[in-house]
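User: My collaborator sent over this chain with a note saying "see what the structure looks like." That's all I know about it. Can you take a look?
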Amino acid sequence: MMAAVWQQVLAVDARYNAHRAQNNPQFRTLYIRRRSQLLRENAKAGHDPLIRKRYLQVRAKLLAERYGVLCNPDGSSIKSQTPSMRGSRVNLAGDVDESRYRRRWSNSPQKMLSSTMHDEGVTPTYAAKASRAMAGEGTIEENYAFAGVHHIFDQHSDAVTAVRFANDDKSRLACCSLDGAVSVCQLIPAPATVICVLKGHTQGVTGFQWSVSNDFIVSCSLDGAVRLWQVSSGTCLRSVEDSSGAPVHSVKFQPVNNNMIVTGNSRGLVQVLNISTGKYAKGGSCKATGKVLALEFDPTGRLLWSGDDKGTIFSFAFDMAMGKLTKLKRLVASEGAAVTCISARSWISREARDPSLLVNVSANALCLFRVADDSGTLKLRRRFPIRQRDWNVHSSFCPLISFRQGACVVTGSEDMCVYFFEIERDSRACCVNKLQGHGAPVLDVCFNYDESLLASSDASGLVIIWKREKKAGLSV
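Assistant: Without extra context I'll predict from the sequence alone. Here is the result:
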């Protein structure tokens, strides 16, 4: 009980943290870390829960009066119906009946058919009761309301560049940082703890990914190395240097064959590496136009996209037997603006297959593309306004597809907020929620598989775990 109250108090503090010392983000970071420490210590003292609840109510009221911003006493977020920037144009390629169901394209590739891009193992139906129960029957706003902060991690001393929950796992989360480390955390049961810290990279870690089985993590770094880690022991099983000695900015497991990984480096090379043998595949290298900052596979593992710092997205055919890459299509998302994240989704609507890419571009835009054919041709469907110019910001499709109108995406932003956008609403009301609590640009966001928790990381090294609001009849 006491732990729940201090977490709610911390959620209130985090909610208002963006309004403190606006010209001194370092102070805000130190403040929230110290508050987290003091509140944890205070919770162990066993004070009267009624007094703590009263303190929570009084503190929320005082902060609201001090900063002139409304906040619920339980720390819940204030939903925004208006995007923060009105200058960007939003264009839809067409109207689609969008819904959400529990189907994530990347985490269980063995369960999918992989003969062609059109083969998808499961078709969403209204009879999927488990998915409907997890997603809920409420509105988009209700389903993305948050009761506050579950936990705050501050084990990293520099920007946390990526956060990822383990596949089909509610509680295990990994983070990588420019301090050169990868950390693995356990969120449930309470108290949340750091299980292990994977150390070995000599420079900042720019990206990582869990294997399908969650037994391994592959990471890449500015030191030019790719490392394979065994999660259970925290040991590095293999370290492979980039073939050209360049810093590595992105890495992905091949979704059907986890012996293969693909890397992207600062010299514009997209390369296929057999991580089991440590050897690069013959014919498995292609050249992009700039630093390869983002990589993404389709569910079948036969189609790969890359994004670089020149604003270009390439699609490649991946030879499953040989690991050979063949360049297919090229698209300039925004001339000279870096493509920092690519996420793929095969189904957005339960009614019809609609393969899509979600792309962060350093031109203050989050772009949604439709995949038009088997060659990976992209057609711009919509833009969402965010703040992004200087940092590698990431976004994600929300993992559940429920049985109501609407589908959501979530993204970080350099204005220190986490944004939720509904893809079918008009531009004036597409932002259905905004979470404030970070004191630095938000670089990455990630849901666990049932959307009960959301992790967000920032440029100061802070990771906030947000918990979804509980509703009657729902277990989150």
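A starting point for your reply to your collaborator: The chain is about 15% helix and 35% strand.
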